Amino acid sequence: MFDLSADYWSLIGQGVLITLWLTLVSWVVALLMGILLGVLRQAPVGILRAVAAGYTEFFRNIPLLTVLFFIYFGVPNTGIRINAINSAIIGLSLYTAAYVGEVVRAGLGTVSKGNIEASRSLGLSFLQSMRYVQMPQAVRAAIPPLGTLLIALLKNTSLASQVTVADLFFQADFVGNRTFNPDILLIAGAIYVALTLPLGATVNLAEKRWAIQR
After folding, report:
1. What's the pTM value of the predicted model, to 2 decimals?
2. What pLDDT digit, counting tens, does each position of 27-39 carry?
């Protein structure tokens, strides 16, 4: 059923590498943006909180595919050319950052007011308190949901195939059309599982280690 030539297996392997690259780069960007959004949601300046909240609500309420299509097909109309992979990374990052920001905001909400007041009484500024007191505790609380978002991001990369990115799903679909064997999608599904299960185990391990330190 899965008797494929070496060339087809090579395409699948290339698709896996592209999927991992999309996941890694998008996650790093989304994590940085999400932390910034989460901090801004707690900022003492109202306009900053409003901007962060607006960004979050906007991207949480539109489909990811719409974001990808707009960046890949719409942005070039302004004269800015972005290739398929970069379009996918930008779209995935912008979209995921909104959810990361909410997770970070929720994590910051778990920090006791006593700790925050104590840091302020010591003369720490908002940013210093955020860096040395609140964020370290918030990150520990946010590990499980952040891990869930990372796994979701890996699976969401399959939508990049809709903007011609040759990721795992794209290559599997291509091979299936060439071989007239739709069962190739079972291989793709198994590969996604093989990629996400270790991620879940790593997140669980990280959570336990942080819990012990805490």
Report:
1. 0.89
2. 999 999 999 999 9
